[in-house]
Structures are given as structure tokens and as C-alpha cells.
Amino acid sequence: MPARRISEELIRVGIGSDIKMLLNRIRAVPKAAFAKTADDRPTIQQHIDSMEVDVSQLKKTTRPLVVIDDVVTRGTSFIAAVALLGREYPGAVISAFAMVRAVGGQGTEIEVIPSSCRGTIRPDGNWGRRQP
Question: Hey, where are the domains in the chain?
Fold first, then answer.
């Protein structure tokens, strides 16, 4: 599982203190990477409906939480994850981290990993909009 491996490595180098697998996918959604068009990707609501928070892993907290994934494209799954966690942990500051941000269109080969950046992801209709 890429997100867990990324989390373990971040902790190994001194970034972060603990791994909690707080989100479980309870229903499959179509894999966004295989969508023929951008509009065929799962919506924010589809992601929300397909996940649940495992509160047995972490009781109420106000500690910062970071959602980790390997690749971010539009950020739709991040928006859903943060929304779900925000409902269960209303006092926590929740952010997201992705190892790679996708650039280019479907079928575009990644030849160079873009430089690291800090940005924002906001809902834009049914999907996310990432800047940058």
C-alpha cells in the first residue's frame, strides 16, 4: 500500500510521529487513472459515500492530521477524506500530502517529476481543483 509506505518513510526521517489508518474504502469507485475523460472520474460525493472513518483507531483529538496518498491529480479524493475526518475530529487541523502531483492529460507519460510545491485543493463542482 503506497500511502502506508510513504508514511513509514516520512516517520523514519523525522516527519510525523504515528500512523493511523483512519479511512477505509467500503465500496469500490472507478479508478480515476483509467477514466477516459476527466468527467468520468469519481466525484467528491462518490468518494465520500465509498469511505468511512475507523474511529476505533483514534479517539477524539485536536492533534494535526495528515492524509497521505501517492499521487494527486485533481484532489477529489483528498477533499472527500478531509471532509470525513473533519466530521469526526472537528478540532483537528487536517492537511494532505501526495508524493507526486500529476501534470498533463490522460495517456501522458511522466518524464520528469515536477518540483515539490505547496498548494491548495478546493471543491469545484463535483471535483477538486488543485492550485498548483
Answer: 2-24+41-131
